[in-house]
Amino acid sequence: MTKVEDAENSVNIKGGHQFVMCSGDIANTKSQPKRDTWSNRFDFVISCVGAAVGFGNVWRFPYLCYKNGGGAFLIPYLIAVVTVGFPIKFLEVSLGQFMQQGGIGMWNICPLMKGVAVCTSIFAFLELAYYVVIFAWVLLYLGSTFSDPLPWSNCNNTWNTVNCFAGSSDNGDRITENSTFYNWTYLSDTNITNVTGLNLTLNRIDPSVEFWRHYVLEITDGLDEPGVIVWKLLLCLLAIYIVVYFCTWKGIKWISKIAYVTATAPYVLLTILLIVGAMKEGAVNGIIFYLKPDITKLAKFKVWYAAFSQVMFSYAVGLNMLPALGSYNKFNNNCYSHTIIVAFINSFTSLFSGFVIFTLLGHMAYLQQVPIDEVASSGPGLVFNVYPRALAELPVPQLWCCVFFLMLAFIGIDSAILILEGFACSVMDVYTNLARKREAMLILTCVATFILGLPMITQGGMYVFQLVDYYLFGGILMWLICFMEVIGIGWIYGADRFYDNLELMMGFRINIWVKLCWIVITPMTLLIFLTYQLVTFEPLVYDKMYVYPPWGNALGICLSVMVLMVIPCVMVYSLIKLDSRHGTTMLQRIKYLLRPKLKAHQIPDSWGSKAYTWTDTNRNSL
Questions:
Q1: Using CA atoms, how far apart are residues 444 and 447, in angstroms rounded to an integer?
Q2: Of 75, 148, 175, 176, which one is least surrounded by beta carbons within 10 A?
Q3: What are the disulfide bonds (predicted)?
């Protein structure tokens, strides 16, 4: 009996699922499909570093670390890396490499789960619009660093209010928020008036806060007051998309060369800032405050949630970037060791950024004679308020502020490029005719996400931004997407089968820990934290003061539900449009869509020729 005759005999193996190979591969014996690949293995590693290291490493991890037990926070953080972060990261990279496809095409390994892939593609598309808005803020700050004096260091600007306060009072008394003046003496050229017993309350606002709110954002009073587009941010947004497009249009070989600069420069600039900050008074106190362990915090479940969510955010999972980057590897590349390297660099960057941030915050607290926790904050407040103000206290502040925002710009451009590439790769792998029109497809994507970003750069745009951040990127979607990915491979396709595939691909069998995570530990952990977030859900509040109207929260919930509904909708569509010869009942169709579509070179010899089952090459499994 010939190999083809053997292949035509469908048999069940390893758990009842049948394996499918496209008939176009009958003549394609164990050769890998043609596809653009990295020039060398380091191109892949450096690009993955650029994809994973984002703004969250700088503005989120340091704050979470000090707020949740200091050095003790590293315990749940490292557990999260081992049990969730690395297993999912390796799953996405290895699956992309094994299938030689991006985020959507890789789910030919389990066609029924392609709804998850489409959901992640939409998620990445929205993430690009959201991420570039942050980058626009960074670019505006970067341009402002060339001003003398720095516009956030004084109260002599047109946007400053009467509450702006840039230093201490003339009599040497420190003024804090909602403070009271006593025995103030006012001197003029014409008279001397001694005012005693005056009790005056003033709500002090730092000039860096006013620069952020009144110059950069031009913020209104609420979501129902959108205002007009802030032209400064519009120009920054346009400039960023132009740069991102020209960094992406030539493909991965061009992207990898850019990554050598954009992925490595931030470490040089962070090191410079660390050296400068470490030489200042109060820096040691900042480091102690950052890492001082408080083991009692580990008894709080929210500390563990913070650690696991930070790992998920910073490891860039669920965004189609990692499968796309993995798909450009050669089929036999050792992606296991490379993923370990990238995961280590990612976590190191988060920890290293904390040292950089808290040396300067310690110095700032020393100058103001206040506790460090009064100057520390998270998110945009740290990057755009606190840290620029701290850098403004240094000699030649323009230089150090420029270094800081240039570092953020490198991080931003790298992430934006790779989010765009991950989305484009996913779409072009499914609609191959678009690959011949790559430039047009990238332009269309940039224009569409540019338009989506416009509501977030209006005068009321910060309220829209926070709404999108909370409901789309706040964790629920991410937990669910990654849960579905792990279930798809660990349970539906089968972790044992995928281990066989990995052994065929890399030439060795990895340890059992990752398989154990895919089957039990990771999905259970994701489910626990997903449930926790749903149970503890609270309506959105911005800046601890602005409570979103009910219709605003309803809009946010609708956005997240619409994205999630893509998963069942694609499943139902796939079942309905399936040709009748693949099944007349719903159960038969489900069984057929659970069969992986593998090519000859992807099937281990140990499975035997009967592992092959033929199908229509023109079948569109979406």
A1: 5
A2: 148
A3: 155-164
Binding site residues for Na(+), as ranges? 50, 52-53, 57, 314, 346, 414-415
DSSP state of 22: E
Rounded Cα distance between 74 and 412, Å, is 26
204-246 per-position pLDDT tens digit = 788 888 899 999 999 998 898 889 999 999 999 999 999 999 9
Instruction: Report the alpha-carbon distance of residue 254 to residue 413 in Å, rounded.
Output: 14
**Residues in the annotated binding site:** 50, 52-53, 57, 314, 346, 414-415
Q: Domain residues of the chain, as ranges?
A: 34-154+214-268+293-360+376-564, 167-205
CB contact at 8 A, 426 and 117: yes
In degrees, to the nearest 5, what angle opens at C-alpha 173 toward C-alphas 171 and 178?
Answer: 125
CB atoms within 10 A of CB 168: 13
Each residue's pLDDT tens digit, 107-161: 988 888 889 999 999 999 999 999 999 999 999 999 999 988 899 988 888 888 8
| Residue 193 neighbours by CB distance under 10 Å | 9
Single pTM value for the model: 0.85
Helices within 249-334 (DSSP H only): 252-262, 265-278, 283-291, 301-314, 321-327
Fold of 34-154+214-268+293-360+376-564: Hydantoin permease (1.10.4160)
Task: Pull the structure tokens for residue 357.
Answer: 């941030």
